[in-house]
Amino acid sequence: MDPVTQLLEDVLADVRGEDAGAVADYIPELARADASRLALAVTGPAGGTIAVGDADAEFSIQSISKPFVFALVLDALGRDEVLRHVGVEPSGEPFNAISLEESTGRPANPLINAGAIAVTGLVPGTDLEERSARIVAGLSAFAGRSLTVDEDVYASESATGERNRALAHLLRSYDILHGDPHVSVEAYFRQCATLVTVTDVSVMAGTLAFGGRNPVTGEKVISARTARDVVSLMTSCGMYDGSGSWLLRVGLPAKSGVSGGILALAPSQFGVAVMSPRLDVHGNSTRGRLVLERLSDELGMHVFDQHTAIATPRVSVEHDSDGTMRVGLEGELSFSGAERVLAALRGIEVAADVPHLVVDVRGLSQLHPAALAVLRAQVGRLGGEVRVD
Ligand code: GLU
């Protein structure tokens, strides 16, 4: 077994004995879930996915669908239009709270039910069938395979979801939802009943981690800006009223669902998904949280850990026969990376015997405009030039 698979297996083995929490039963069909299930998957930048545990077990995506439908709507309508209908502030309240802004009726954010229903209401489509088909197709693009709806879970939530139905009517009264609120809330129930595996969710997380490009299919599903917006939102609001302690302990933007799934990601590094049906008081998978805490602690995955390599480009120095000094840069040059390069160039300034300096940035995979501007200014001061093309 390769070392990463072994490591993931070990993490699962460590939490398997934990049996705190309870399977959600307010949607009757969810109560039938096998509570012993446990699965974990991680997806890297080239699309390689390692899945362990009950990796083939399908479960309904539930609230993990919310950031993705928000992403699709953001990409289609633009940030300003979407934010007229929903806020982006943590509610500090449970998932099904009536968190509506007093004057406008805007739900606090798209990751609680009220906000998610408002967002689903923005998906184009005249009837339920059309809107639902668009949502499932969108979720499928994130997962990289054709997903389907679990009709039993849908029927079960539709038969019992009076609170969500009430939220939809409330949103209609504020004109946040337009048209028939039933179409929006039923489309939302179908969206939540979409069937996925941990591998699907891990690839979906990867698509957000890698700027909106599905790392398996290569499809650009959403813009990099939208992916950044969604990841920002998950950081502050993804774990409901447990979002603050989650950020402190796990430090990965994440989204959980009542069927026991948790999606998390480290931007530009990996997507991860874990599933185990028993939930804590916040509605987050108990064993899922333990798994992600362990991965974060032991593998240094917390996003606010120090990551010097990300900010440091590779630097090579060559001298031509005419004395020209060529400084080549590779990797990513961020604002902080530019500062490190400048510190190196200051040493060159002291060694005044260099007749000409060329800083070649063509090998960089990513160059931030501010970094280029400071680099140009400093290299110009040394009488050198920056080669960009
Ligand atoms: N369909 C569920 C509901 O609206 C989703 C909740 C969740 O996963 O947190 O109640």
Automatic annotation (TrEMBL):
Reaction catalysis annotation: L-glutamine + H2O = L-glutamate + NH4(+)
Keywords: Acetylation, Hydrolase
Annotated substrate binding sites: 63, 113, 157, 164, 188, 240, 258
EC class of the enzyme, as a word: hydrolase
GO molecular function: glutaminase activity
Documented EC number(s): 3.5.1.2
Membrane spanning stretches: none
PROSITE patterns: STAS
Keyword Acetylation: yes
Coiled-coil spans in chain: none
Domain of life according to the entry: Bacteria
Domain STAS: 322-389
Hydrolase as UniProt keyword: yes
HAMAP family with a match to the protein in the record: Glutaminase
UniProt record similarity statement: Belongs to the glutaminase family.
Subunit structure: Homotetramer.
NCBIfam families: Gln_ase
Protein name as catalogued: Glutaminase
The species this protein was found in: Microbacterium flavum
